[in-house]
Structure formats: C-alpha cells, structure tokens
Amino acid sequence: MKIPVGILGATGSVGQKFIQLLENHPWFEITALGASERSAGKKYPEAVNWFMTGPIPENISSMIVNECKPNLNCKIIFSGLDSSVAGEIESEFARAGYIVVSNSRNHRFDPDVPLLIPEVNPDHLELIKQQNFGKGCIVTNPNCSTIGLVLVLKPLADRFGIEAVNVTTMQALSGAGYPGVASLDIIDNVIPYIGSEEEKMESEPLKILGSLVNGEIVNCDMIISAQCNRVAVLDGHTECVSVKLKSPATEAEIIDAWKSFTAEPQKLDLPTAPLRPVYYYEQNNYPQPKLHRNIDKGMAVHIGRLRKDPILDYKFVVTSHNTIRGAAGGAILNAELMVKKEYIKP
Amino acid sequence: MKIPVGILGATGSVGQKFIQLLENHPWFEITALGASERSAGKKYPEAVNWFMTGPIPENISSMIVNECKPNLNCKIIFSGLDSSVAGEIESEFARAGYIVVSNSRNHRFDPDVPLLIPEVNPDHLELIKQQNFGKGCIVTNPNCSTIGLVLVLKPLADRFGIEAVNVTTMQALSGAGYPGVASLDIIDNVIPYIGSEEEKMESEPLKILGSLVNGEIVNCDMIISAQCNRVAVLDGHTECVSVKLKSPATEAEIIDAWKSFTAEPQKLDLPTAPLRPVYYYEQNNYPQPKLHRNIDKGMAVHIGRLRKDPILDYKFVVTSHNTIRGAAGGAILNAELMVKKEYIKP
Amino acid sequence: MKIPVGILGATGSVGQKFIQLLENHPWFEITALGASERSAGKKYPEAVNWFMTGPIPENISSMIVNECKPNLNCKIIFSGLDSSVAGEIESEFARAGYIVVSNSRNHRFDPDVPLLIPEVNPDHLELIKQQNFGKGCIVTNPNCSTIGLVLVLKPLADRFGIEAVNVTTMQALSGAGYPGVASLDIIDNVIPYIGSEEEKMESEPLKILGSLVNGEIVNCDMIISAQCNRVAVLDGHTECVSVKLKSPATEAEIIDAWKSFTAEPQKLDLPTAPLRPVYYYEQNNYPQPKLHRNIDKGMAVHIGRLRKDPILDYKFVVTSHNTIRGAAGGAILNAELMVKKEYIKP
Amino acid sequence: MKIPVGILGATGSVGQKFIQLLENHPWFEITALGASERSAGKKYPEAVNWFMTGPIPENISSMIVNECKPNLNCKIIFSGLDSSVAGEIESEFARAGYIVVSNSRNHRFDPDVPLLIPEVNPDHLELIKQQNFGKGCIVTNPNCSTIGLVLVLKPLADRFGIEAVNVTTMQALSGAGYPGVASLDIIDNVIPYIGSEEEKMESEPLKILGSLVNGEIVNCDMIISAQCNRVAVLDGHTECVSVKLKSPATEAEIIDAWKSFTAEPQKLDLPTAPLRPVYYYEQNNYPQPKLHRNIDKGMAVHIGRLRKDPILDYKFVVTSHNTIRGAAGGAILNAELMVKKEYIKP
Fold this sequence. Notes:
4 copies of one chain form a homotetramer.
Chain A: E1 3-8, H1 13-22, E2 28-35, H2 44-47, H3 58-61, E3 66-67, E4 76-79, H4 83-95, E5 99-102, E6 137-140, H5 144-159, E7 162-171, H6 183-186, H7 197-208, E8 211-213, E9 216-218, E10 223-230, E11 237-245, H8 251-259, H9 264-267, E12 278-281, H10 289-292, E13 301-308, E14 314-320, H11 324-340
Parallel strand pairs in A: 1-2, 1-4, 2-3, 4-5, 5-6, 7-10, 12-13
Antiparallel strand pairs in A: 7-11, 8-9, 11-14, 13-14
Helix pairs in contact in A: 1-11, 5-7, 5-11
C-alpha cells in the first residue's frame, strides 16, 4: 500500500519532473494532479506540453487534472506551483490537513517552516511542531542553485567553519521553467542576470546551515556574495566558489571532508538518496554538467579543481542537477525523510 | 603609401582575424603571409580553412603563403603564431629589423618587452629602447581575457586604487583557436578549465598596471584570483568581477570613472580605437556577448550590474570581444600607437 | 528630403529589423512607430525588448510609440504586424491613403495584391491599379522560406522550365519571432514542424512565378512538396532542393543561369539591392548560414552542391537570411522598387 | 559463463559506446581492449578521453589497452575501428578465428559479408558460410543514417513495394566521432555536407533490402536520393523522407504496417532488442531527437507526420539514435542474433 500523493502545478516544468521521478517510486503513488483553471477538467496529456525525455507514464496518461483546491484524494502534496500563487494555496492545503512538500519559495523563510536538505539539517524538521495547521504542515526545499552549494559547504562548515563564500554561477535553462528563456536570447550568448537568484543564494544557506536553538533557527554567520548567470546548458548548474574558512585546512583535509561526508538519507537508505552526497574529481576539467548531472540518480553534487585562492582561502567548482537534486528530487527526498522520521504515517 | 605588414600564423584563427580587420586599413597593407611549412608555397585560399564570416579579401586571395623566415617583404610583423613556436621566430624577425607586434604569450614577461594596452600603459612603449634588436623590436598584447578586465580596472585603479580582484570568466570558443573545442564537448555543457588561463589573468594585469620606474616595470601590487570557464559562445568573453578598493567610492563615482574614461588612442584618433574604451549599461541584464561584442568596431569593453559586494567592495559584469579587442584588433591598435609615437616610421 | 515611413509592429522582431535596416537609409526616414495598445504612449526603448545586435538608433530612442491607427505622420507603412491583426489594420491604412508594404501573410493571396520579389515579378506591381484603396495600396512580400527558394528557381524556370520541386528546410529561430521558440525545445534538438510553413512554401511560389494575363495572375504550374524543420540556428534558412526541369540542362548551364542572373533591382541600382541576387559556390560544404547569411547586405541567396538527382533531375542547397532578404529587407526593396517605378512619389 | 568479447578502437567514440552498452550485458563480457599503438600498454582511463555521460565502468578501469593484433583473449570482436585501418585488421582477426562484428564500412559490400539489421534481413547471415576465414567470420552493420531509414522502409517494402525514396537528413554530431566537428563550425550553423554519407545512404539499403538468391544477394531495385546535413544536435539523426510505393496504400494502412511491425529480435527476445522496432506518433511536431532518441534503450526508430506527398506518394519524418541503434547497439544486436542462431557458440 503506497502513500497517495498529489502534484500541484502538475503541468509545469517542476510538476513534470515530479511525475517523471515518482514513476515506480517504492513508497509514493500519484493519485491526484492539480493545475490552473485552464487545465482543470482535461486529461493530463491534453493539458500538458510534456517536454521530459521519455513518454508520459501510462497511469498518469488517463488522469484528469483538477484545480488546486484542497479536496484532492491524497495525503502528501508535492508543490511545483509558481510563486505568484503558491503561498496561499499551500497554506490552504496545510490547513486542510495535507502534508505539503513544496519547491516554491513563498514559505521558505517562515520561522516555523523547515528549509530542508536531508543531508544538511534534518533536525530542522522539528520546526513543524510549531506550525498551526493541525494535522497538516509545510516543508520547503531551497532554490536550485542553493542546494548544490550548501551540500558542498556543509562538510567544510562542520569541520573548519566558514567565514565567507564568493560564488559565481552558470545556470541551466531548465531552472527558468517552461517556456522560460527564449532561444534567441541564449544561443551564442550569456545572460548575466537571473531575477532574485542572487538574493536567494545569499540568504537561504544562512537558514539551512543555522542551528535550532530553543525551537528557533539561529542563522549561520557566514557572508555570501553571489553572481548568477544563465548559460546555454539544458540541465545542471555549475558554480565557481571561493571560501574563507574559520580554521586552517590543507587541501587533503578538505577533500577528505567531502569524500567522507555521509548523512541521514544515506544511513536511512532513503529510496531517492544518492549513494554519496558529494563526489570529488581529480581531473582538472571536471565537473561538467553534461558529464556529471545524471550520476547517482541526479541526486549527487560534483566537485573539482580544489586549489588555493589568493584572496580568500580556497576555490573550487561545483555542479549539480538543478531540476532533480535542486527541485523535484530534493522535495521527494524531503518527503522520504519525513516518512522515516514518522512525520508522515502511511 | 601604406606601411607594408606581414602576418605570421596567417592561416590560424588570429591570423584570419588580422586579415579580416586589415582589409581597407588606412595605414597598413598586407604584403606578406607567413605560416607553417605545410602551407608555404600554396595560394592562401588553398592553405587556409577560412571560417571568418564574409569571404577572403580579394587581394589576399591571390597571395602565396611563405614560411615564417625573416625575409618577408614588409616592415611590421603581426604575429598570431602558436606559442609552441612564436618565441624564437619572433626574436629572429626582431633581430632582422622587423617591428614585431605579437599576440603570442612568449615574450609578454620579458623585462624589456611592453605588454601593451594603448589606453592603459602607452608609456611602457619606452621599454623598447632597452631592447637589443637593432632597428627591430617586439611589442606584445595581453591574453584575450586580460584585456577586457584591465581596461575596466584602469579607471578604478587611477581614481581609487585597487587591493584585490576576484574574477570568474565565461569565455568564448574562438579563444581556443581552430578547430579548438569539439562540439561534443561544449554543446549543452560548461568546461570549468582553460589551460594556463588563470595564471595569465592573475599575473598579466600586474605588469600592465605597473609603473615604469628608472626604465623598469614595477608591478602593481593588487591581488587577483581568477576562475576561468569555457561556455557555448562563439565570440565574446564575459567576466564576473568583484573588487576591493584602496579608498572608498560610491557607485556614482565608479560609474563616473568609467564613463569619463578616455585615453591616448581616443586623443590621437587612432583608426582602430573605439570612440569610448568602456561603456556602462543601466539595464540589469546587460552586458551580453551576443548583443555587445561588435559595438564600436568590437574594440570597446562593456560593463553592467555594478552593485555592492558583501565580501570585497563592489561587483560587476564585463564583456568584450576576445578576438578583436582581445587579440588581433588589440595588436593593430598597438601598431597604430607606435606609428603615431614614431616608433614606426613609414 | 526623405520619404517619411512608419513601422507597424515596431516592437516585434520584424519591426526591430525594419528599424535597424532603415537607419541611414538614403530615401526613407522613420517618422512614426505603431504597436499594440500596451506599448502605445511609451517611449520606444521602454516599450521594446530590443534584441538586435547593436543599440537602438539614436533618433528612434526618443520616439513615442503610437497605436496602429491610420493617423500616423508618414507616407509609407512597413508592416511587421502579427497575422492575427494585420489583415484589417493594413486595409484601414490603405483606405486612408497609405502605401502599405507588408511582411504579413494576410493579403498575400488577394487577387489584386502583388506578392512581390523585385528580382522575380516586378511586373506584378501593376495589380495595384486594380485595388480600390484610392491613393493607398497594399503590396506584400512572401514568407521568409519562400523568397530564397523562388530567387533560385526563377533563373531555372526562365531558361529550362520547372515541373516539380522537392524542398526540405532547416529554418532559423528568428523566423518564429520573439520570444518564439523556447531554448529548452531547440538546444540539442530539431523540431520537424513549423505551423502553416509547408502550405506557404507549396503555394506562394506558384503566384510569384505566375504570369500577369489580362490583369490577372495565372499561377505557374509546377508542383512543390515541402518539409519544414526548425534547427538551432539564429538567422539564415537552409534548404535542400531537388528539381525536375521541363527541358534538359547540363550542370554548367544551370550554374551559368544562376551566375548570369541579374534583374530590375540591380539595373535600377536600388539602395537595398544585392550586387548579385544569387551566388554559386564550388566548395562542397557551402553554403552555410553562419558564413553566408550576411554577405551582400544579407540580401543575396547562396547556392552550392549542384549535382544530379536520381529521382528528379538535379539537387542543390540554398541559404538566405530570413529576416533581412526574407522579411524586412525584402519589404524595403519592394518599397524602393515602387519609388523608382513611381508608384510612390516623394 | 559469459562470452568473452574484445573491443577494437576502444578509445574512439564508437568504442566508448560499446563499453557503455556492454556494462552488465547478460551474455557478453569485455575481456580485451584494442586500440592504436599510441594507446597500447596504458591503463584504459589513461588512454581514453572518455566523454560518455556517467563514469567508466569499474571493471574496465583497470584494464590495459592492447594493440589491435589477433592475440586478444576473447571470442567475439566488436570493431569500432576507423575505416582507414579497419579493413585489413578485421580480416586478420577473422582469419585468426574471431567472430568480427564490425561497425566500420570497409567490408559492407563484400559479396559474402552480411550487411545486417536483425529486424530486416536476418536470413543474410547465411552468407557467412561462404566466407573463407575458417572458424572466424565478419558481419557488418550499416551506416548510422541508413539503419533508421531501412527499419522504416522495411514494413512498407514488404507490404506495398517501394519504387523511390527521397531523404534529407539532419545528422547529429556524435556521428562524426571525436573530436569530430569543431564547435566554431556548428554552433549557430548547419553544414550541408557529410563526406561519403549520401553515397552510403543511396547504396546500402539496396543490399540490405535485397534477396538472398542461390547464396547471392540480389539488390532491391528502388531508387534512393539522399541529401545529408550536419546540425547542432548531440545524438539522434532526423530524416525527412518521401516515398513512391509500388502499389497503392492509404495512410491508415501505412501506419498499420509500421505499428504491427515486429521481427526476429523481438520474437527471439534478444537482450538489446527494442520492444518495438518502430513507433508512430500522432503529434504534429514529433519525432524529435532530444525527446525520442533514448526511448526503448535507444534501439527503436521513431516516425511522425505521415502525409501525402504531391510529387511522390507519401512523406514523413524519422528519428533514431545514431550511436546506439545506428552503431554500437546495432552491432551488439547483430552479435545477439548470431548467438541465438548458433553462429556463435558459448
């Protein structure tokens, strides 16, 4: 008996990814699809402009899309709603008793809502207890460019402490949703701006890496500076990072911190967890989004080129899959953690 | 009567750009083409895999390619030779009395060789007097990713002083020459490594922005950290920069420093000089390589997104054309300055 | 004293191209810009998402956008309107006495409206006399993929006659307007369908190559079969063509027919006319959109790879610039012909 | 006990694909790698520039590359050798008793060598009996652009007969091997020429669709005209086809012929066989290489847009994966058929 789940924003790009990743999930089964009024009432294949590789899963093909009203036949809601509407709709579902696992940014900074990466801050799940939604609740995952960065910073923060992080991103087109970036704008080009992205990267890690003290998150005190760019890559964000550590570290110690990093999802053997959260490569031209984004189910983060930085302490490059680890896959992993931790009961 | 010039490495990508930019030049006329033994003796169209847009200029089409021996019928040598052979060949030509204006890296750090950007360090031309080549001499221009950066730093260095520069680049494919980067390696991808590029960006600006003291260059004392990436752009390097200044500056003062920047090439009205060396844009998604690389003959540098940096002081984005301003066009501008300053006499 | 012209659909992709190509036009001067209600009343730079390379021309930067009502201060109207609205608006302008030179498809098959390519059917301009718009009139140019094909067929039709044409296109993204094709849909992909495009390619050439008999167009009797594809090219349509001729021809005769082809625009020395309408290349991998689209002001058509076809008679490849020759530039050439033929009087 | 196989040309692009596809193969196990002298003696990861997505399989990582001499420890040889050397080396291996399953073109037209597609001409395997290699033999698969076409023609040829085929291809970059096409040549471009490709497409189907009569292949009598283009797609060839049939057919009958097509590999349940050799799509913008190339293990061919052709009878679009179905996967399927048919005995 699988746990019934519903997808909000089921026709959007994150919604499609949820559907693709949940096909054959061992614990969850999609039983409801929610989308805008325009799509409601239609069969899913008629409502969606499906652009995932591979066909629409068969059982989904016959489903009728509903409006995003809290009368869906499911227990968990995965929300890929646009932030223009996600805030209120997600609250409604939570009030109606649904477990809302959201990829949208609206509730990320609510003081009682976990901004969750299972490998990084699984203890933040306790915040749920302070929520006033009755049996329902809301859990969020961070922005797609934040997740890769934080997974890589976590082992360093734990072992050496981090004072400052300078990051320049080269982000994939799928991060902009669909239709997103016009081909005329990005072929043979770079766009050195993504709306609100730098603000998210500079603030979200502080909450995620923060401590739970007396039921409240005390933000981590590092300083982050982000410059975000869109490049002609379909999937996979690449980030050039430099860090200033609080205590000294050798290159070998840093690599060891990454290579030995393992966490709750690995210990609990969650179905969507990568075997290893981060991979370090010795090749001087690695990681690359096309080569590495799909490794370990698209749920791992890939690091290379660790070397001294003459201004801060060290610099390196990070790549991760922005719509799997950075969005739908990350949310599914959050829900899996909640099941194992018995925040969700079958 | 135009000054006769020869192109070394005439079949390579920089050589082709020299030929394209010198068509109809008011002062210079190509009278000799040099390339490898394999090409020597052939008509140019049979020796070259021409990939510039637009056809081979007519007068070049009938020229025979020579070997790179110092018996060419010309006064100035523009060298686009590969660094594996440029060092010795360029010295030979200088010893034989030619004015060698090189785009190769080999002699850039010779103490008596100017590493020249006419808008930045025209006084460094005096170093030539210390060279021991008789009537000949060697002048170099910097690496393609350095030029854009230094042109933008110069007005800030003059007015506020610079302590540190952090730069992450997204560099165009034409920077790798031809055939250069395989399409299978870069479509839908980023390669976070370019051999020796970071070393060049971290060292060349120190000499260029250095002072000529008693006939010697004293390097500028700023610290530079560079991370260099290859992206799927044909022409135009984009750089995300953050800087720490020596004395405080407001955003308005910085923008004013850029907007009011003008220098020798503009005053001397050199034929290849841009009307303005740098342009600042208010649009939050500018500059972009596809939109801005060709403005002002491809010789200007384009800046946007100036904003506070929480770690250093300010951050911004820079774009410039890597094979025009950053290579062949930059070298031609060097030669034009030398003519006006009478280092070259018709 | 230049002739005042207005641009309808001035913020769209064809409208932007009109503005770019008319900067410094010797006969025409833009004095009015029309666009949708949403843009009307705004300064042009605030109304437009300008994506041409190079900046908005200065005199245009200060112009206010008007609604598309026939009270604009100009004599000629260049229309780049979307076909959803072009039909009625263009008629209104013609009735109000404007010379409407349209790139839209709505009036192309009106029996009294010329579907004009100045090198091919300049005599069709006479149809205007049958129009009932008083001093106003409407002239159209063909679809972007039709123009290149017809310019190449015309010399063959004249000399040998054509029975059948099989054409498969690989069309550029700018043909879909802006934002047009989503980057997620076309990077690393081909889309083997463009709405209505095959119908246009199979019908428009029949009218253009038709004869004017007693004031009516009698369609040409060739059969055309078209397959249209979208590929990841910014500008420039490429077409693989095979033809069955009515009378036998050698390869040399066909190439001669192309090389010797010249027509009204060349004889009249129209400002936007290419020196030669078609170019034939001997290189076995030519023509290519990136290499050839901009040659001769983007107004020429480029042909290569003529060889026997085992099913029809001959096959070859054609490339032309779809938004210059195939849209805005073609319309401007139409207006220039009308001036010289005194259909438009200053 | 798996059958030991060796890969010739193991460091090339087809060789890498063989290695990737044979990881976890139920019948075959790679026990030897052959490559050029330059690679011989090195560990595979040091000899190869691996560019497959996903890492080098672990068991391969420790293998030493050998020269391509017939002393390899294996029974079957998969050859991805360059055609400049494949002819003689493959013959040597066959003479030494190896089963050579080749992707190279050298032996494709040897009268006693099957040019094999298991769904199309499995009976041609009998030709092997005429070979004079003792226990060894050579079997080839067709060119990557041929396979997709022939799989789609086969059901039509069987049911209606085919007189003529006109095909224009848009071929992927991986078909050119590695490094293959320079990025500067193909980004924002189409190259309308691929050396020898049109000749292969016009001749190979005639042998494959030919009949085995008294131990000899009698070629099929259809006429094929091909125009081949390279486009900016990583994997997956797309082909626009028009056909003239020998007997009349309705659209429904043609679609039925495709949908009901099944053959030996499906009946024998070969491990690499697709569930269905061809898929027909109703969507008017399908098939697309990015969406469909990997479906059904990358071994199926995808068809769409069947419609009347005004010159021949019908036209449609075909897409298939050029390095899986069209190269390494096709060769593996050939070997699987040979095992089931007992041409190879464990």
